[in-house]
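Problem 12. The chain below contains 160 residues. Write out its predicted structure in token notation.
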Amino acid sequence: MYRNKKYRILKINSLNNLMQTDKNKMEKKNKRQRKINDAFFKLRTYQVYQQGVLLVLLNNHFEITLQIPTKRSVVTHQYFKINELRRGNDSIKVEEYVEQRCKEKYLQDISNGIPEKTARRRYDTNKITEQLHLLIDLSTEFGYRFVSKRTSGKKRCSNC
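Solution.
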């Protein structure tokens, strides 16, 4: 009988240790996930503000057509898709241009041996950066100046 009690106590203690280990792993994972979420939030907020400033500058020169978002952004501010920039008889189909550029980068990634899943993920993130690059290029054509710096990208990233 004594032996069984000792075994039960030992068994309960080992379960508690396992639960504590799992709890520590979850806390570390939550901290890591929180850092990732914070980094995403800061980046997306920066991109939204950048898009807003660029749209205000270009609004003096273009008639801008925005696409209504399919769902409202809850975590960050809303990032808009730009369908078209029109100036007189000239028109720039921004969404089509961005899609074309991202498809080119996607195919280049695939030909460079990047896994398809990674290339698809990059395709989605490239849409935002390509749109911002186009807006910056157009703004500089109208005499606006910007100070920018290149960021260090992740491994084998062609557009960083």
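Discussion. The longest helix spans residues 2-59. Students who got a different answer should revisit the alignment rule from Section 12.3.
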